[in-house]
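cron nightly-structures :: item 1 of 1
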Amino acid sequence: MRILLLNPPPVKLGAFVKDGRCQTRSGGELWPLFTLGIIASFLKENDFDFIFLDATAERFTINRFKHFIERTIFDVVLINSTTVTFFDDLAVARIIKSKDKRIITVFYGTHVTALPDDALSYGEIDYVIRKEPELTALKLFKALKEGKSVGNIKGISYKLNGKYLHNTDISLNYNLDMLPFPALELFPNEKYLMPHNNQKFTVIRSSRGCPFHCIYCTSRLYYGCKWRTRSVDNVLDEIERDVNDFKIKNFHFNSDTFNLNKKWVLDFTKGIKNRGLDIKWVANSRVDTLDSKSLKAMKNSGCWLLSLGTESGDQTILNNIKKGITLKQSLNAVKLANSVGIETLCYFMFGLPGETKQSITRTLKFANKLNPSYVRFYKAVPYPGTEFYNTAEKKGFIKSKDWSLYDMADCDVYELNEVSSKELMHKIKKAYLSFYFRPSYALQQFKKRGLSNIFTTTLNGIIFLKKWLK
């Protein structure tokens, strides 16, 4: 049995950054899929015959992909999918099935985890892996290879005699250290570049699970509500391998709550210094988990940017989405990061429950007052499996289940009472212009970067804005 591990090529929508809960339109950025890489390592350890293809990173056109399928022999394909890319991914599965209907197609990701029946209703999908997929995929592939029953494999859904069967959910893995490192030797590593310096980077997930209750996020659906972390040494070992074997010195720690455990952060940053690792890194954080001591340690170990989910400049909206933070905490987080020399990227969403024209205006003013290094404004998306989606559907706000429209760049699947979808897009464009074209912001960037780097920064900014404003 031969397996194809596939990140599908884009069909109609263009490239997306997708892994775990991420499903963001690519602004020229390509991310290595660490989940698919971990599964590849499992298959190598267990002597499976398989092929690894990141068709998005390799910039496959559909015609090139069809040619690849025609000349490649495999029996099973594992496809990483998301809500917004689901129909594109389904089209790819259709191409594969058109070659040979006997090829077994397996989908994983947040979307099929939330809607396994819907996914299985399409004849192109044979199996769905629900929740975090690595161990489940290994067990499923072993059963298929040996011709054994899949009835006792937890975490899968499938069709049998015209019925949809859903095996019991998996028990989430609490020993994350037992997972192998992603098989980066199979990745086109030279394709994954940090946009600010065009240097190779990779993604590391140091923890899984989120104990918070944000109504729009799929993290709890996929990784559960219990925070689970890898040991400091395990993460450091992965970094050391990536530096030595693949010459990678830029890292993105794609963990929902990187700063949740302050002792872990301090031990981790100390370990970077003790091992003499000369790296640059980025992490995600909540605004209410930061403190001066850990931020200083992060800066001294190579952290240069923190991504912060500030979401709104209206406290009522933050309360509505159960974010569990205050505007004061957001201001304090950016101030603390600035004080130690760490740059900040703040995310805001328009169109959350309770949004009005007045709350949008407050968010615009707050973003400028916050004055982070960078901002990104999105339209809120009610992803299936979230409380946001369930509530919107119950109230009749969902006007489309064309999953390709569930795109943060221009989501047009539900209507608020006070602000139309079209007006939300206009507000987003206005928000970008009002933030990035302030004289004070231009002066701030000049002082920070100097004349030598300001041209590159400006050019990257113009390219990014053109993609949004068109």
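cron nightly-structures :: done
Residues 379 and 464 are 16 Å apart (CA to CA).
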